[in-house]
Design a protein that fits this description.
Layout: E1 3-10, E2 19-26, E3 31-35, H1 42-50, E4 57-62, E5 65-66, E6 77-81, H2 92-101, H3 111-124, H4 140-152, E7 158-162, H5 170-187, E8 190-195, H6 198-204, E9 207-212, E10 215-220, H7 222-227, H8 232-237, E11 242-249, E12 252-254, E13 263-264, E14 270-276, E15 281-296, E16 301-307, E17 310-316, E18 328-333, E19 337-340
Parallel strand pairs: 3-8, 3-9, 6-7, 7-8, 15-17
Antiparallel strand pairs: 1-2, 1-4, 4-5, 9-10, 11-12, 11-14, 12-13, 14-19, 15-16, 15-18, 16-17
Bound molecules: adenosine-5'-diphosphate and magnesium ion.
The site of magnesium ion has 3 residues, from helix 1.
GO molecular function, one term: ATP hydrolysis activity
Domain ABC transporter: 3-238
Organism: Roseicella aquatilis
């Protein structure tokens, strides 16, 4: 199921709209993550797609069909919202059966068919043994699996997930996201997954839409967002980066008074801001910098280097064995992402 979103705007009273001309084209079968700071419009976007909220302007087409005026129940969309908890007074079985039982009489499966389908879904989410339990008798991770089974009961071809693993601890989240991605692939559905956790988005999504203040700042594959951010916001938002004020002249960014060699920059002359990933800031023995900290993450050695008044995150050059605190070093920028300062923030 493809999803085409064009010029989507939603205002709540005066002030900045929650959605401000959102454009997004999701392919059928794609797993897309919506990533952005709190308040950037992620939940509002999912609610509009689900038909739980009405936009002020713009269009949503699902499989080519404009869904304006189509009620939520008729959209064939499954959703799991963080706040959309399971019904406490219903067993796991009844929770999953719910979406089928509330169907209009003509479309409602018979009781035996409902039971068979619920059991298949509980197998699918790998908690078949829980059907008689109540939500408070199962773990948080199990509840999220059951919530997903409930969303899948109506056999949606589009799944909307709003921070479904938000309340769970890190290891359970990791297990569930891998499992979710496998489930998505097996079912051949289209998934939109809201998260504010960039590692989670990078780990599961085919493409990530970065939302900022109600707009899509960039929509691309994870590696492209990281390597070719469209603007300073995306560059600073995703991954770690040293932010270095600079001045561009004749296609080169200069970092004076810091003792760093100029780097190529394809922006107009004037004040600018360079983002340099720690891996692209190479430290070599001897020079004007001082190693203030060295930290091994199991694979790579990370250095904190003081250069003038600035503390920078850097990586030792290949062959520099065991740099230590208080060692002197020089820094070289291997690559930088440079944006004009007025557009940067
Ligand atoms: P996110 O999910 O990215 O954190 P939301 O979509 O929840 O962001 O909110 C986007 C903006 O819209 C926020 O400024 C929020 O306060 C506002 N907003 C969301 N829902 C409502 C509402 N029902 N009434 C008023 N303002 C709202
Ligand atoms: Mg939200």
């Amino acid at each position: 199921m493809s999803v085409e979103i064009a010029g989507l705007t939603r205002r709540f009273g005066a002030g900045r709209p929650a959605l401000h001309g959102v454009e997004l084209l999701v392919r059928g079968g794609e797993f897309v993550a919506l990533l952005g700071p709190s308040g950037s419009g992620k939940t509002t976007l999912l609610r509009v797609l689900a038909g739980l909220d009405v936009p002020d302007a713009g269009q949503v087409r699902i499989d080519g069909r404009d869904v304006a005026g189509v009620p939520a129940r008729a959209r064939g969309i499954g959703f799991v919202f963080q706040s959309y908890a399971l019904f406490r007074h219903m067993t796991v079985f009844e929770n999953v059966a719910f979406g089928l039982r509330v169907r209009p009489r003509g479309a409602r499966p018979r009781e035996a068919e409902i039971a068979a389908r619920v059991r298949r879904l509980l197998e699918l989410v790998q908690v078949p043994e829980l059907e008689r339990r109540y939500p408070e008798q199962i773990s948080g991770g199990q509840r999220q699996r059951v919530a997903l089974a409930r969303a899948l009961a109506i056999e949606p071809r589009l799944l909307l997930l709003d921070e479904p693993f938000g309340a769970l601890d890190a290891q359970v989240r990791k297990d569930l996201r891998i499992w979710l991605r496998g489930l998505h692939d097996r079912l051949g559905i289209t998934t939109l997954f809201v998260t504010h956790d960039q590692d989670e988005a990078m780990a599961v999504a085919d493409r990530i839409a970065i939302l900022r203040e109600g707009r899509v700042a960039q929509f691309d594959e994870p590696a492209a967002l990281f390597d070719r951010p469209a603007d300073a916001f995306v560059a600073g938002f995703l991954g770690e980066a040293n932010r270095l004020p600079c001045r561009v002249a004749g296609g080169l960014a200069h970092f004076a008074p810091l003792p760093l060699a100029p780097v190529p920059a394809a922006v107009a002359d004037g004040p600018a801001l360079a983002f340099v990933r720690p891996a692209a800031l190479v430290a070599t023995p001897g020079g004007e910098g001082v190693v203030r900290g060295a930290r091994h993450d199991g694979r790579v050695l990370h250095l904190s280097v003081q250069l003038g008044d600035t503390l920078l995150e850097a990586t030792p050059a290949p062959g520099w064995e065991g740099p230590r605190r208080d060692d002197r070093c020089g820094l070289r920028i291997a690559s930088a992402l440079v944006f004009p300062a007025d557009a940067a923030d």
